[in-house]
Design a protein that fits this description.
- The complex is a heterodimer of chains A (364) and B (161).
- With 364 residues, chain A is an alpha/beta fold.
- Chain A contains 15 helices and ten strands.
- Chain A has one domain: 3-Layer(aba) Sandwich (Rossmann fold).
- Chain B folds into two domains: 97 residues, no CATH class; 51 residues.
- Chain B contains four helices and no strands.
- In chain B, helix 1 packs antiparallel against helix 2.
- Chain B is elongated and about 105 Å long.
- Classes of the chains: A alpha/beta (364), B mainly alpha (161).
């Protein structure tokens, strides 16, 4: 018997949909009181670790695998200065760190710490030729290795690239994740908003000192206002009865809202020398007494980019492969966003085994 | 003053255009409504379509010079206010002879400069020591070569008693 009305409305489908929606809404209603409990279960970092080095606010974590590491050359994760680094070890099944630990790498991660007002005069040179150099020297001594592998994410990738250009003799392999290098593109909103006609970075830093975490958080939210402020809460309400969804949501939101301030002078240098003057690609980026020359990078390079990245568009990362002198270099553009590149289920299943394998073949 | 007013009017016009475009694009999504599918699915489709067109329209607006001028004016206003408040507080601290934020920043900057000078000097010393090391190595190598060259002539034959 045909259950359609004269208007082509499928009555049976409507009835099934109504019933399903009613029961789903009931499940949503029942799940709501348990949200607070699920939020409390969020942990920041899941792989067992120990602190092996500290300097000022900086800590270096060593991740402990099940057996002895297979490779002598240590791997050091370098994250950005604007967020906490536990995104690299977010949760079970969403941890880049765990992938490398399981593959047998002696894995370390730099936690830059939270800058205070006393740190407002720290420059990019202090981070690259100060902290990062000290960490690398410590790891070399600790492991008895001449070189280290570096994996940099976002701004951490930019810092790692600058470090490698100046201290190539200390870096064995360089892996970059959604790393900004060429800031001439006008694809990303931040590239437009930092235009010197509209943003006086000197006035901003001279007045504010360190760049507040709230300011950075607002900027990131404004990149996709509807997705962040409307679509996300709606998605949460729609899927509030699905435990896995809610757990992933809370883990991500905890990290996304865990911004830290950026030292004023670092912010000034990034805004002026990179976003406004694009000096890195011109091999004229000043870093203390050095000038960063990307042509000095000769080690193997793996450049991972996210196709749908609003923060660091591919056009900002891709040119690096043509600017370095490395002969062994590869780039991968993955269909994901800035964070999805690191922690999405699909990236964990398909991309990261490939990235780990790339490093396994080039390390000892 | 008329320049500011014109700017203000332009910004209001741009904002109005933004909302008109947003509603027009949302209406075009609604026009695709079909009663054939169940209402819950159709509502989700409509919502997703509406949010997509709103996101695209607003992304376009966020790239316009008018928006960026507005952002610049807003940020500069906030910074000027903060600066005025800080200058006011500095005056108060000065009157009460207590340290102000400016004084603390000054001390931090002075420490920073000292640190920088010391580190630069240490790096310079490090380079000089490295140079000296190289020179000493070269001298050692030269001496070793000379010793190798003279040794065969100085050798005496050994005879056992």
């Amino acid at each position: 018997m045909d259950k359609k009305t004269g208007n082509g409305v499928d009555l049976e489908a409507w009835q099934t949909s109504f019933t399903n929606e009613t029961f789903t809404n009931l499940r949503r209603f029942i799940s709501t009181p348990f949200l607070a409990e699920k939020m409390e279960r969020v942990r920041k970092g899941v792989t067992p670790r120990e602190i092996v080095y500290e300097e000022d606010h900086l800590k270096v974590y060593h991740y402990i695998g099940e057996g002895e590491p297979r490779f002598k050359t240590p791997l050091c994760f370098v994250f950005a200065l604007v967020n906490r680094p536990y995104i690299m070890d977010l949760k079970e099944g969403r941890s880049i760190v765990a992938n490398y630990v399981k593959a047998g790498f002696d894995t370390y991660l730099i936690d830059w710490g939270t800058p205070t007002r006393a740190d407002r005069f720290l420059t990019t040179d202090d981070y690259v030729n100060g902290y990062l150099l000290n960490v690398v020297e410590h790891l070399r001594e600790r492991n008895g290795s001449d070189k280290v592998n570096l994996l940099g994410y976002c701004m951490g990738g930019t810092l790692s690239t600058m470090f490698t250009a100046i201290h190539q003799d200390l870096v064995k392999n360089l892996v970059l994740l959604a790393t900004g290098i060429d800031f001439s593109t006008r694809q990303g909103l931040i590239n437009l908003w930092t235009d010197p006609r509209y943003f006086d970075v000197d006035k901003f830093v001279d007045t504010m000192g360190n760049v507040p975490a709230d300011f950075l958080q607002s900027t990131f939210l404004m990149l996709k206002p509807f997705a962040n402020l409307i679509e996300k809460p709606i998605n949460l309400m729609e899927n509030i009865h699905r435990d896995e969804f809610v757990e992933d949501y809370f883990y991500m939101e905890t990290w996304l809202n865990d911004n830290i301030p950026v030292p004023g002078e670092v912010y000034r240098e990034f805004a002026k020398y990179l976003y406004q003057q694009n000096l890195l690609t011109k091999n004229r980026m000043p870093l203390g007494r050095h000038i960063v020359d990307l042509r000095k990078i000769t080690c193997p390079l793996l450049n991972l980019m996210a196709r749908n990245d609003d923060l660091v568009p591919c056009s900002q990362s891709e040119p690096l492969n043509d600017l370095v002198s490395s002969t062994d270099k590869e780039k991968v553009i993955w269909p994901a966003g800035h964070i999805g590149l690191a922690v999405s289920g699909w990236a964990q299943k398909e991309l990261w085994p490939r990235a780990v394998d790339w490093l396994v073949q080039r390390t000892d | 003053m008329s320049d500011n007013m014109n700017k203000g009017v332009d910004q209001i016009a741009a904002f109005q255009k933004l909302w008109m475009d947003s509603f027009a694009n949302m209406a075009s999504v609604w026009s695709q409504f079909s009663p054939g599918s169940p209402p819950a699915d159709e509502m989700r489709k409509m919502r997703s379509g509406m949010l997509k067109v709103l996101a695209e329209t607003w992304d376009e607006y966020l790239r316009t010079p008018l928006f960026m001028e507005m952002m610049k004016a807003s940020l500069n206003g906030a910074l000027d206010l903060k600066r005025m408040a800080r200058d006011g507080m500095n005056l108060v601290h000065e009157q009460f002879e207590s340290p102000s934020k400016e004084d603390i920043d000054g001390v931090l900057l002075a420490i920073r400069h000292v640190e920088r000078r010391l580190l630069d000097r240490l790096e310079g010393l490090d380079d000089r020591v490295a140079n000296l090391d190289q020179k000493i190595d070269k001298v050692d190598q030269r001496i070793a070569k000379q010793e190798d060259a003279t040794e065969p002539q100085g050798q005496t034959s050994k005879t056992e008693a």
